[in-house]
Amino acid sequence: MNLATLDIDSLVRKASGFKPLSTPGLRLSKVMRQSSWTSVELAEIVDGDVELRERVLDWANRSGSGSQRQFHNIEGALIRVGPGLALGLAAGLSVRKWMQQALPEYGLSEGELWKHSVAAAMAVDLARNFCRTPIAPEAFCAALLHDVGKLVLASHLHDRSAGSQECVDESHGLNGQEAEVETFNTCHTELGARLSAHWQLSLGTADGIRFHHSPILGPTAHARRLGNLVALGDVVATAIGVGCETDPSKVKFTPAIAGSLGISLEGFDSLCREVQRGLEDGLELLAA
Fold first, then answer.
1. What is the total count of domains within the chain?
2. Domain range spanning residue 190?
């Protein structure tokens, strides 16, 4: 089948057999989409899933968390990491195997997309220490899933010619999103956002995915902030050597990101060092 003949809804339906959230994850997402919820509700959901409970506690207690306190109960750990990160961990536990596969269509070996995604999510989590603006709770999950649309496109590329594949991996001098639109009439950011909505994640999560290459296009201030947060994660991951672009120079720390989030160049450099220092621990916490 030729991807050029497929619309976005068709691609989403083809990916609908894979659900990135377990039952506890879906319950978390549903509660968090409500206008009001309590920490007790969230703690009960997380506490009911052994693997998710362990990951939340491990993340709250990891050496790079910035806390000297050790947490032994979920309520305390959720106060430390926030409900958005707990939801992101639930998604991560579900998508890790899918996202660890090689994507030769994008020049990525096995594990490279996943490593990039975890680094981006960690950057968003740690950004609270370097940004003057608050970090939206949806940002961690959006950063972890920001390139998930590439998996959908890549799964169909075996039916394409070598020339189209080259277009995707940027050998024609286009950035990845432009090449995807030119070749397939859609792009990984739009696909990822549609998949996020299909998987019952929040509008904010979809916005972070959809606008991470073009935050200025976000329809609301919140959407633009989420786009910039995920863009920051993408840039940090690229800066520390785990990027997903053939030409890393196309992923830069820009004045727009700095101004939107209130992060200085010195803060960005420090954030890069923090993520690089803790990345292996983060990967281990989300390992199978």
1. 1
2. 7-21+83-285
Whole-prediction pTM: 0.88
- Among 36-40, 132-136, 139-143, which is the least confidently predicted range? 36-40
Is 147 domain-assigned? yes
Q: What is the mean pLDDT of residues 23-42?
A: 86
Tokens of 133: 């603006």
Where residue 130 sits, what CATH number does that domain have? Answer: 1.10.3210.10
Q: How far apart are CA 288 and CA 29, in angstroms?
A: 22
3-state helix, strand and coil shares in percent for the chain, rounded to the nearest 5: 70, 0, 30
pLDDT per residue as tens digits for the range 155-187? 766 545 444 444 454 443 334 677 777 766 778
The answer to whether residue 210 sits within a structural domain is yes
Burial class (CB within 10 angstroms; exposed 0-12, middle 13-18, buried 19+) of 261: buried
